[in-house]
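Thread title: Can someone regenerate the structure for this chain?

I was given the following input by a collaborator and told the matching structure tokens would be attached. They weren't. Posting the sequence so someone can regenerate them.
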Amino acid sequence: MIRGILTLARLDLLSWRRNPLAVTSALIPPITMTLLLLVLSLAVIQQPVALVVKGHGEQTEKMQGIVQSDTDAYINYDFTKNLKPIDAKSAEQKLNNQQVAAIITIPADFDKKVIESKGQVNLTLNNVDIDFSDDIRRSVDRSVAVFDAPSLALEEENAVDPLKNKDQQKAYQNNPYLIHIEESDIRETDVEWLSYQIIPALVLLVLSVGLIGTALLCARDIECKTARYLVVSPQQSWALVTGRLLGGFLASIIVLIPAILLCTLTGTIHPPISHWPALAAILAATALCAAGLGAILGSILKGSRNIAMASSVIATYMYFLGGGFTTISFLPQWLRNLSSFIPMRYAIDGMRQAMFYSTLDGVAKDLTILCLTAVFAIILGSYTIRRSWSN
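Best answer:
Regenerated them for you:
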């Protein structure tokens, strides 16, 4: 019986590999979404700017150093983090050619104006897009605030502790705002945007392959009339159904493993070693859930094209409603209520908790919901498969 289950699963994997429609339909959504995330990671985090320094002096160098050290906000026109000053003419040319989004200029009389409390930094902005325009405005505001009030520096090495030494005491006393902020972060470093967003892409990969692969294989049995031979085979029906679901599950895992290895080798994901079992359990439950949903879809719909299109749409909507682009907890209540019925939300939340936090708080709940959804989907999928075979 076990050999029969494994044989059917192996045949399904071979059929899935030889079906270009299934492979293409399953891989296009996660690959496209990953490429979109890579592009967005270059567009929404750092903005290319040109830095023009016209004067010399202690205050000018201080302002220049603040801008150059903020590599989280500013990036050079050649997309390197080493923001080197250039002359005004070259900066204007790069702005006109849309090589940079803005020009930050420290005027020649900056030191003199600072002494008179009239110092200013000039910002020439290509405000064609309110998104990156506001990002640059906030970044420049932050740089100026750090200059005026050193205690507002976000980085620990730049923060001023008025109790450390006389120089810092003087800097603190010269702070016109007289505000000292002590920041306490819940992790050592900020999670990079791409690392945070790659988690939903991995979930989408598992969901897409398991859903589309299983659905198309189930539909093929009906279209090619092979379901009749399965019904009269000596194997029990539940064993055949198990083999079919196992094939979809294994297809997801086979595609997922190299993706995980690639993300690990490139440093995109680096969870604590003790959290890997939890991650493996979440991904396995997601793959089982996808196989069950694929069985339901493939047994109900007719036509490979319709199934491929419906599977892609369902996988994509589950990706977005499950928190593919943001944290669901930060969204309005009505969206949170809607998302609570999407099983992929619990896969994404559980993986983010295991990836980026020191504890596994809430992972047990997420995994339980995923497993219950997988069991329900497999039971219902098994029923629809047997029913389609008998028709």
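Residues 193-223 form the longest helix (31 residues).
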